[in-house]
Every structure is written in C-alpha cells, then in structure tokens.
C-alpha cells in the first residue's frame, strides 16, 4: 500500500550530478537525477481542537485560514470535512483517507513517519448516488470508521500523535498530523502535494517555533509560505526547493542535503550552511549567510542568488559557466547586499556546462560576486592553490585572472548589478603567449644545435 519513496535532486548542482571539471569536489555519492520534485502546500501549525459535535470540522486546505464547525452551513473557501465530531474520521467525495481496505467502514490507518501516500495507497472505492439519476453519476461516497482507535497495527493510540494519509479531490495526496482520542482531539497541521506525486508523512514538522524540512524520504518543492516567528531547519540528504514568499523571522540552518531558495526569505534571520550541505537557488535572502564548511551554489543551473552579508568559514563556492552560451547569461552570479568575508580555506569550484567546454574569448569578464560592503581581504583557493588578487591560473581550456576589488562588473547578469557602487570579484579570460614546457625547451635547444651543426658541415 505504501510505496518506497525515491530521493532525487535537481540537475547541475552540488549533490545533484557529477561535475565535468576534473578538480571538482566529488559529490557523486548523492548523484541522482529523477523527475521534478513535488509542489507541497503546508498549512503551518494549526492546533485545531476537534469538537465533539456531529457537525465536525471543515478545513480550508487551500488558504489554511482556519475552520468552520457547522457542516450544515458551509462557508465558501472551506474545502473538506474529514471529522464528523470528536475523533471519528469520515470519508467524503473530496477527502479519502488511507484505509486498510476499500469498504466504507474499513479502518483508517495511522501511518508511520516517512510513509508515502500516493496512487498505490488504499482508499475506499465504494460510491454514493444521492439521487439515482443517471445524468448525475455516482461519486466516491461518504463513510466513517469507529475502529481506528486502538492498540493494533495501523491504529491510533488515544492521546498520541499520528498521521492520517489522504487523497484530496481525487488528484492530490497529503497527510494530516493529529492527536485523536484523549481529552482534546487536535489537528496539528497538514500538507498535500498539488502535482499528484507521492508525499511523505512528516517531511514537514513544526513543533512550537521550529519548522523542520526533512527530505530524508524524497525531495520536494515547498509551494506555500512559512510565516510567524519560526526558525527553519533543513535536514535529510535530498533537496527542498522553496518557491513562496517566506516571512518567518527566525534563523535558517541547512544541516544536510540541499536547500534551494527560488522564492524569498524576507525575514532578517541568519542562514547557516553546515559542512557537506548546499545552499542555492535563484531567489533572495534578506538575512546574512554564513557558510560553515558547506557549499554556496547560486541557482539550480546558471542563475543568480541575492543574500545579505556573506561569510565563508571554509567551504566551497560552486560556480557554473557555459562557454557555449551568450555572454550575458554565461555564468552564475552571487549578489551580496552587505560585507563579504573569505576566511579559512574557501575552494573555488568552476564547472563548464557546455557539452564541449571551450576557451572564452580573451578579455571576457565574468562576475562571481558583487559585494555592497567591505571585503575582509581573504582569498579563494583553486585546486589547492591560493588565488591572490590579480593571480593568473588555468582551469580547463581557460586561463583566468581573478580580481577581488573590480569597480566594473562582468558580462553575466549585468541587469542585476543594481545601483553604482560596491565591488566585484571578477574572472577575466587572458590570452597568454604559449610558453613551452621544460622538455620542449630541451628539444628545441637540440634542434637548434643540430641545425647549427648541419650548417657548419655544409660550409
């Protein structure tokens, strides 16, 4: 009934596919490229008490605006009524809970954390025809269950937290975290997937002021916003993509896997990225970002990311370019609205996404980072070698000069450079005169010597 979940990553980013560059840090152990992640809508913490009246409780699953306890006088916008009072869970045409069988009274199951709800789950298949008119065909029917509370396998223990998996409106799958029985039955929160893909129970967990985004059971997109004074912790080896406008005011800790911010984090809370974890995306982060040995990787391909102050305490700046693309979009870009600090060993990882990497035209300039405040004077390393200001180094078919205090940006994402001011870390392609290897000098000397000898003999 519950299929195994499949972890997956977005392509072309750390932890998402193997880099084409020979010096790239190996992340192949996490390299899985599968279909696009789900689009999950989360209710935020609700803590709704379930009344003991027959009227039950209507939930606004789309807007998550609350509940209506009068089933006989529905309110526009309130979508489903999964409870017909107290802790009695019911079917409705819109709400089909995961059951142990297909009849109207089959027990509703308490799913373990990490269980997958999807098309392989078991839902009631009986139908209800309210008028017997062939012009209005039967619909999935109404049904209840008095047998879901108990101590058996798959049952809910009174007073303890559990998960109800469900199919919503015939196309979306979700879960609802509840405490049934006891003195006060409660709906704590819920989440559902608008793409029709499976959804894992417990992949979003909010206890008090901490929201945990856990991708251990598979990657997902979070389409709704996290609000309030909450803090966010990203766990699990897979990826989570944030697409909404998130106004929560607390901190964000990326402790494992990848967090891609394609929407926005408008609060001022700090973001930290632990060793081995990845922060990326094409959106904006208002607070400061500290890379504590982790990876900063703008975009989910060649894109730009905006943050507050940026501090690297070791770690990696993963930078993608495309030597086959137009110069205006040929590379990633990191916009820092604050100070920049490079402390410890900060690896610069350059990857060319072109099918056949080629040298950029000489004098092509690409901006890695723009910082609006100060720079602490620290440097990147490449292939284990420190790159000082104006250092020239070779990466693949390119020879680059790096500048940490350029006053003019490069060709990539120039429309996002903003107001005049600030400084850029630029890479500029240089055209150096080829210098023979030492062995070539010896061969050339022998050749010249041989030529002189031959000339002397011909005289």
Would you kindly provide a written description of the structure presented here, covering whatever features stand out?
With 459 residues, the protein is mostly beta strands. The chain contains 1 helix and 39 strands. The strands form 7 sheets. It has a 21-stranded mixed β-sheet that branches. The protein has a 6-stranded mixed β-sheet with strand order 30-32-34-39-38-37, with no helix packed on it. Strand 16 (204-207) and strand 17 (210-214) form a beta hairpin. The chain is elongated.
Question: What can be said about this structure in brief?
Answer:
The protein is mostly beta strands and 459 residues long. 5% of the residues lie in helices and 37% in strands. It has a 21-stranded mixed sheet that branches.
SSE order and pairing:
Layout: E1 38-42, E2 48-49, E3 57-59, E4 67-68, E5 80-83, E6 90-91, E7 95-97, E8 116-117, E9 127-128, E10 139-140, E11 143-144, E12 161-168, E13 172-179, E14 186-193, E15 199-200, E16 204-207, E17 210-214, E18 220-222, E19 231-235, E20 239-242, E21 245-246, E22 252-254, E23 258-261, E24 264-265, E25 271-274, E26 278-281, E27 284-285, E28 289-292, E29 295-298, E30 304-307, E31 310-321, E32 333-336, E33 340-352, E34 365-371, E35 380-382, E36 385-387, E37 392-395, E38 398-406, E39 423-429, H1 438-458
Parallel strand pairs: 1-18, 17-19, 18-20, 19-22, 20-23, 21-24, 22-25, 23-26, 24-27, 25-28, 26-29, 28-31, 29-31, 30-32, 31-33, 32-34, 33-35
Antiparallel strand pairs: 1-14, 2-14, 3-4, 3-5, 6-11, 7-12, 8-15, 9-10, 12-13, 13-14, 16-17, 34-39, 35-36, 37-38, 38-39
